[in-house]
């Protein structure tokens, strides 16, 4: 065992370095989904940690397309289909990409891809572009949503209460079961003594 001891610090250092490298190479992406009307705009934020060469935003579905490539202090590369409709804010470690003048064909799944030591993908953002809605219909739709809000809230709290009640009953049943097993074990022990 003594000859192995000098190797232990080296192994621990290697393991910690590998774990730190794995933990620091991640891509966070927000929002998970967004719905916008045709002609509107959406924003997707790509956040990374660790050393970074650049960031891609790729449309993965329905047809894989590289939307942009962004690298600090260099002009971004933008696919011709999206040219004139893309704006950037922030730096490549925390980059917000805004796509405006949405078209129905922009509907799809978009993912940030960080170019690090390895290529690291973020979770997809589902983008749904809807048909333009006339202003009167839009106002009517908003009124319906506002009137439905109390019902949705009431039902949400009802189901939340049911869930909490079920958890309480389950915990009480477990506690009673545990208590009865302990009492039975105590009775058996006292009868044998």
Automatic annotation (TrEMBL):
GO biological process: adaptive immune response
Keyword Membrane appears in the UniProt entry: yes
Matches recorded under Pfam families: V-set
Secretion signal span: 1-23
Annotated TM spans: 145-170
Ig-like domain span: 3-114
Keyword Transmembrane on entry: yes
PROSITE patterns according to UniProt: IG_LIKE (PS50835)
UniProt keywords, alphabetically: Membrane, Signal, Transmembrane, Transmembrane helix
Stated name of the protein: T-cell antigen CD7 isoform X2
Organism: Leptonychotes weddellii (Weddell seal)
């Amino acid at each position: 065992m003594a000859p192995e001891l000098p190797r232990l610090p080296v192994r621990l250092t290697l393991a910690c370095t590998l774990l730190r490298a794995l933990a620091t190479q991640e891509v966070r992406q927000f929002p998970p989904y967004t719905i916008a009307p045709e002609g509107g705009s959406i924003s997707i934020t790509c956040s990374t940690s660790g050393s970074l060469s650049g960031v891609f935003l790729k449309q993965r579905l329905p047809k894989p397309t590289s939307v942009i490539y962004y690298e600090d202090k260099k002009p971004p590369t933008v696919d011709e289909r999206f040219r004139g409709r893309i704006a950037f804010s922030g730096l490549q470690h925390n980059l917000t990409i805004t796509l405006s003048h949405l078209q129905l064909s922009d509907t799809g799944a978009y993912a940030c891809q960080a170019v690090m030591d390895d290529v690291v993908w973020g979770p997809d953002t589902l983008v749904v572009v809807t048909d333009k809605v006339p202003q009167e219909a839009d106002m009517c739709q908003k009124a319906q949503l506002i009137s439905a809000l109390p019902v949705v809230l009431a039902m949400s709290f009802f189901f939340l209460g049911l869930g909490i009640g079920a958890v309480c009953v389950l915990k009480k049943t477990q506690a009673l079961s545990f208590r009865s097993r302990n009492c039975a074990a105590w009775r058996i022990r006292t009868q044998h003594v």
